Amino acid sequence: MTTAHAATDAFPRVDDLRSAPLRHRHGDVFNPPALTNYLGCLQADLDLTGIRSLNFAPYAHADTVTASLYLDGRYLPSYGEPITFTWRPDRVERSMTCSGLRLTSTTVLVPGRMAAVVLVTVENLGGADRSVELGLAVRSTIGATHEALTGWLPYHEGDNALDVDAARRVWVATARHSAAVAVQGVVAVDGRVETDAAPGRLTARLTLGPGGHPARTTVAYVHVMGADRAGCLAVYDDIARDPSGAVTRAERFWDDELAAVFTGGGRYTGRLPLLETSDDTLRRLYLTGIVGVMYFRRERPVAVLDPSYDTLMPRYWQTSTFLWDFSLSSIVHGLLDPEPMRRQLEHWMRTDVHTCMATESVTGAPIGMWYAVNDFAMIRSAREYLRWSGDHRWLRHRVGDGGTVWDHLAGYARAWRQFKTPGGLADYGALGNLLECVSSYVHEVAGLNAANVFNLRTAADIAEVIGDGSGAGVLRAEAADVLASLRELYVEGEGYWYARHPDGSKRPVRHCYDFATIGSLLGGDLSAEQRAQMTAFFQAELQTPTWLRALSSRDEDAVFSVRPDHQWNGAYTAWPSEAAMALIRMGRPEVAAEWMTGLARTARQGPFGQAHFDERVIDADGGGARKAPCEVPYISDWACSSHGSWVSLVLEGVFGVTADLAGTVSARPELVDRFDPQARLVGLACQGVDYTIDRGGAHRSSRA
């Protein structure tokens, strides 16, 4: 990050989120950066110009790579030279030195357009005139569908009709089975350039060097997608007249978006508090958490849910919103965009959440297998909506044929009963219903049974809001029974928990999900000895300097998988922030604070990935734990939407904010002095009242 803003400075800008330079070459374990403009997304390829996963639902190429660079007739990666990647919310910058040339590129998605631009600048480092040929290998699998997108990759067509528009020197691909077109071309921005287009190839011939010709020349690759040829060519012509202007507009767009997050202007129905601090760790983690939710907003007029928030980008499960990941960001959804949040929750209430892991936004269809976390996800998300909005009338709102919102929420809280075993806990089934890659984390798992205690207690709080005091008492008594049964799963003296199997046997599982979930939800219900043992286990077997191991490397299931989101070699997006919150709620805030300094170094790769590696297993990148790549066997996308957990860590962990369903806000900021005694949150909105939070607590404030 650049120099931190003082408290009097204005809103953050895109350069405040600039990543560290990430230097890589072909063959590296690397997940290249990605972009969105809310209409769709793309990913840079490990190349100076190449892009992939350019998709704007319902129009898509899936993961097809295009615009791969040939330098003077030779495929660029074959030179073996490293490329430096830098991400900002508005752009990806790439640079390298190769064959006596300095090459740089800036990639953007054009605001408001289904289009990408890559500006490429070539500088001659030699002392003589030089001719350079840039060849871009272009491909297309454009297609469109309005049907449910239920697979890992978007719909695409591999047999496009291909031709060249000779007048424009552009390459046009037309889908044969749907109404979809892609136009790709190269235009000169400055300098002496000749361009050409042929099947599968765009070419720019540059004349560089001293002696009357410029030593530096810029060209632009433009890629436009849409429903028809005429429309795509019109957009292409508009962008091609001023490709540099598209880069400028992208920067302005994202600067405006970052301001809108804190003002309530623009596209959001709420706002987040502005963090004023001179501390780089706090600022980096807070802004990364915010952008890591913003970046998943999708605006699709064809969709049943518009706007919506995707879960992964840019490669997998586009148009899909997973209940689990959404719930981990629910504090941000509740504060920043409560109206789409309410619609999303009502949509899930109309869906049988015991039959799916997600729904997709275009058709609203449920997808995938049942995730056992879904009841917890619904209660957690609804609680955030209710406590920040104060919309208690929503509880009486009827949703589909399933009764009122309260009926649905009470049903989720009591759903554990249908899975109840003689041991008094819920059996949540097999591998696919839980962590997918930890074979021992099955059946009666501690984390989700702890969540049942939370669900029942939260339902009791809601029951009191609607005036059902006796019902609240019944729910709290049920929560107490579940808690008593849960205690039987603790591995005495060790700090971790058992999973109980149908035959009654108990298998120890040294997993961060139990630590984080039980510590953050039930920290006050644990004995002092248990809290100390859990913390010692965490520090010895899970914590790393800049990230986390989801599963202890001492666990016998470590041999089962190398998928780093939940296994021994790394951890998922939100597990470090959830674990840090558990440390705070178990009375060890100093451990969390010291660790957060290292975690902030991992945030220097842009938004957190779906998983990062333990930096002692795979070398660090940019000073922090390296993002895991999309490819098999790691299968980890560049970013995941659960970043709101990091915002929660700052608001509720560092600043100690609490807000109940009645709208009572208080704060015990025990950690603020460890970072910046002058730090404060300005404009925290709860049920129509604004608060400023500082080291002295929560104070009502007025907005200018």
UniProtKB/TrEMBL annotation:
InterPro entries: 6-hairpin_glycosidase_sf, 6hp_glycosidase-like_sf. This is Glycogen debranching protein. One of its GO terms (biological process) is carbohydrate metabolic process.
